[in-house]
Amino acid sequence: MKKILAIAAAICALAGCGILHQDPEQSARDAAKVQQRLDSRRYMVNINYVRPSRGAGSAATSSYSLTVNEGKVVSYLPYFGVARNLPYGGGNGLNFKGDISNYQELKAPRDRRRILFTTSNGDDTLTYQLDVFDNGRASLSVRSNNRDTIDYDGYLDPDTDPAEEAEE
């Protein structure tokens, strides 16, 4: 019985691999679009998973995102963790619009780009580290002076232009 279940599982796994395989030409086009967005510094990262430094991670239950648009950032991110030295009511947290300072691209493995920038939400100085893979998958880490570090997973949609979104 165990042997039959193992064979059935192997067949399902192999069949799934064929279904999930994407055309190499389409993958190359998608990677080029992602790179173009990052080069222009006009992109939006949609968040679908939250990983706090304390406690278990969880799926994002709303449309959270990080938008970078030519020197400006719109951070709409949930926060779970310990916060220290904040104004009464919690301050702005990770939901704010601000100016980006010290935007830089760091050396990363060849299948991804690592972007690091600093911004302020009015109450705190925040450092964002964003890793974007060629396929658009993204990993974001936010470090703060007054809050625990928190990480996010999501994807960069290469077809979304933040400048066009702002005009609507």
Account of the 3D structure:
This protein is an alpha+beta fold and 168 residues long. The chain has one domain (2-167): Beta Barrel (Lipocalin), CATH 2.40.128.410. 25% of the residues lie in helices and 43% in strands. It contains three helices and eight strands. It has helices spanning 2-20, 24-40, 162-167, and strands at 42-52, 58-69, 72-76, 95-106, 112-120, 125-133, 137-144, 150-156. It has an eight-stranded antiparallel barrel. A hairpin with a 4-residue loop joins β5 and β6 (125-133). The relative contact order is 0.20.
Distance between the termini: 59 Å
Helicity range: 25-40%
Main sheet properties: 8 strands, antiparallel, barrel
Give the C-level CATH assignment.
Answer: Mainly Beta
Briefly summarize what is shown.
With 168 residues, the protein is of the alpha+beta class.
